[in-house]
Write a structure and sequence with these properties.
Strand content: 15-25%
Order of helices and strands: HEHEEHEHEEEHE
Strand order of the largest sheet: 4-2-3-5-8
Number of strands: 8
Distance between the termini: 41 Å
Structural class: alpha/beta
CATH superfamily: YbaK/aminoacyl-tRNA synthetase-associated domain
CATH class: Alpha Beta
Number of domains: 1
Number of helices: 5
Radius of gyration: 15 Å
Length: about 160
């Protein structure tokens, strides 16, 4: 099955591998990680947040990570930010929550952020746009494909923006 996310990566010449798992697998990065014998950290959660201005942003963290609220507010440049509604996610990305690829759908200027600790992984898995399909690529290729800014979103004791 060739999906839009696959076509996008191929057009950019970004190497990746396809993976698939049973579509009746329970939702969640940890469950997908088990299917591939990987750690939860390697399965990237693609979270869409909405800022009070109406702008949506993409935040990518490992499956076992949580975003530090203060860090997210700094990155977004707003104190008023929340997870986008199901409808806002579908309208913004064209995808339903559960297997949103972190690339291929963003308009020019859309802001995406990648958790810095994920850059230490050898390989990461991201949703391919259809539940049951996964894309595997290196952190640097994920950064390039998603045009993401690498920031610290999960460690309270470290600055948000790397030196």
């Amino acid at each position: 099955m060739n999906l839009l996310a696959h076509d996008y990566l191929e057009r950019l010449g970004i190497p990746f591998e396809r993976g698939s798992f049973l579509p009746d697998t329970e939702k969640g990065a940890a469950n997908v990680a088990v299917c591939f014998g990987m750690r939860s950290r390697q399965m990237v959660k693609t979270l869409i947040f909405e800022i009070d201005s109406g702008e949506c942003i993409l935040v990518m963290v490992g499956g076992d990570q949580n975003v530090v609220s203060g860090h997210l507010k700094k990155v977004a440049g707003s104190r008023n930010i929340q997870l986008a509604s199901t409808e806002a996610v579908k309208q913004t990305t064209g995808y339903v929550i559960g297997s949103i690829p972190p690339f291929s759908w963003q308009a020019e200027g859309f802001r995406s952020f990648l958790e810095i600790s994920l850059m230490d992984e050898d390989i990461l898995g991201v949703g391919a746009g259809v539940w049951g399909h996964e894309i595997f690529l290196t952190p640097s290729n994920l950064m390039a494909a998603s045009r993401a800014q690498v920031v610290n979103l999960t460690d309270r004791d470290r600055p948000v923006f790397p030196e």
